[in-house]
């Protein structure tokens, strides 16, 4: 198994850790982190924590934070992972009223 897994690009052109967070696969996320995946590795300016928060994958987000993910990282829109959560919550709340 390749030890430098953060340099392997998947078919979705994302870092494997981002793919596992996008899908919400907590087992895969744990395995990748145990194998040394870099929680700070971005694609552009987006991190795996941004992806987990965007996709509402709470368990993955918690695990990334446990492994030291930067909760203040800014993406290309200058949003932190928690700004993404706040925006998503507003959208979901608004949808409940229509």
Automatic annotation (TrEMBL):
InterPro entries: Ankyrin-SOCS_box_domain (IPR051573), Ankyrin_rpt (IPR002110), Ankyrin_rpt-contain_sf (IPR036770). It is found in: Secreted; Target cell membrane. Transmembrane segments: none annotated. GO terms for biological process: exocytosis; positive regulation of protein catabolic process; protein ubiquitination. PROSITE patterns: ANK_REP_REGION, ANK_REPEAT. Belongs to the ankyrin SOCS box (ASB) family. Keywords: ANK repeat, Exocytosis, Membrane, Neurotoxin, Presynaptic neurotoxin, Repeat, Secreted, Target cell membrane, Target membrane, Toxin. This is Uncharacterized protein. One of its GO terms (molecular function) is toxin activity. GO terms for cellular component: extracellular region; host cell presynaptic membrane; other organism cell membrane. SMART domains: ANK (SM00248). Its main location: secreted. It comes from the Eukaryota.
């Amino acid at each position: 198994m390749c030890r430098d897994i953060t340099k392997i690009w998947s078919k979705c052109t994302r870092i494997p850790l981002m793919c596992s967070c996008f899908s919400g696969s907590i087992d895969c996320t744990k395995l990748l982190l145990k194998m040394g995946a870099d929680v700070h590795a971005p694609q552009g300016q987006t991190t795996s924590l941004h992806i987990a928060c965007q996709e509402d994958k709470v368990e993955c987000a918690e695990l990334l934070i446990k492994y030291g993910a930067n909760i203040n990282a800014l993406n290309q829109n200058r949003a932190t992972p928690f700004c993404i959560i706040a925006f998503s919550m507003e959208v979901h709340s608004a949808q409940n009223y229509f």
